[in-house]
Amino acid sequence: MRQPEELREFLRSRRARVTPRDVGLPWRADGRRVAGLRREELALAAGVSVDYYTRMEQGRVGNVSDQVLDAVASVLRLTSEERRHLRELVNGRREAPARSPGPSPIRPRAALREMLAMLDPVPALLMTEVLDIVAINRMGTVLMTDFTAMPLSERNEIRWLFLDPHAREVFADWEETAIETTAWLRGALGRAGASTRPRELVEELTARSADFVRFWAEHRVTYCTYGVKRFHHPEVGTMALHWESFAPTADPDLYLVMYTAPTGSPSEERLTALAASALTP
């Protein structure tokens, strides 16, 4: 699916959530078969022509003004993250070079690898925007899985999340994590430019995971770079860990993700015990 098709599906899904009454239009009992707003109703409420909106939804116009995008977003009651996603789908971003199938063989700087190792016993990893794992430290491997033992094409967090049954044991709230990660991938797709990697992941997961198909059809989008995830490890039990994501200034295409436990919490005690256990031969 090319980006214009992604735009069309996204806008259709958002139109389906809003009724004519929501935007002050009369509801016509005319046997309508369209859920939510028709294109002509959205165009009327947003103050643009039906022809222009139709072409915009189909990806057949150039850059769209902020005024029009704001009007459409307001009618559709988009969240701030959905508004950002809409802008990126409509107006795009600087084109990235097309990639060959599979993840690019990104090699982080030696200093970044050393920093990752020195963060131990804090679980940490380096990943790309589409969650290809570039490097992971010892405690990251203990907490999740050994991505470095996988073929390069399989070292991806969302791929592991949906296709490896072990991931459902690692994440105590697997479905919540899967929904959030799917929403991140949709945002990455909107920012992809000419890169084929996000679409390759979507196509593989669509073919192999019914759960992914279900979550992807919801058209959720997120750009959140922090939060709390609950991990389960058979040796210590369940831990609620805070995660933060940072983009190194010199390597803006990479994200450093770290997991920490609140000071003095049971989760800190368990994470400390797990780190000590992992050091025991």
Model description:
- The protein starts with a helix and ends with a helix.
- It has 13 helices and five strands.
- The protein is elongated.
- A five-stranded antiparallel beta sheet has the order 2-1-5-4-3.
- The chain folds into two domains: 89 residues, 434 Repressor (Amino-terminal Domain); 170 residues, Beta-Lactamase (2-Layer Sandwich), CATH 3.30.450.180.
- The protein is an alpha+beta fold.
- This is Transcriptional regulator.
- GO terms for molecular function: DNA binding.
Architecture blueprint of SSEs:
Blueprint: H1 3-15, H2 39-46, H3 50-57, H4 66-76, H5 80-91, H6 110-119, E1 124-128, E2 133-136, H7 138-143, H8 157-163, H9 165-170, H10 174-190, H11 197-208, H12 210-216, E3 226-233, E4 237-246, E5 254-260, H13 266-279
Antiparallel strand pairs: 1-2, 1-5, 3-4, 4-5
Brief rundown of the structure:
By secondary structure, the chain is of the alpha+beta class. It contains 13 helices and 5 strands.
Quickly count the helices: 13
Uncertain runs are: 93-101
End-to-end Cα distance, whole Å, is: 49 Å
| Sheet with the most strands, sense and barrel status | 5 strands, antiparallel
Proportion of strand residues? 5-15%
CATH topology of the largest domain: Beta-Lactamase
> Which secondary-structure class do the elements indicate?
alpha+beta
Shape: elongated
Our count of domains comes out at 2
InterPro entries: Cro/C1-type_HTH (IPR001387), Lambda_DNA-bd_dom_sf (IPR010982), MLTR_LBD (IPR041413)
Domain HTH cro/C1-type: 32-83
GO molecular function, one term: DNA binding
Protein name: Transcriptional regulator
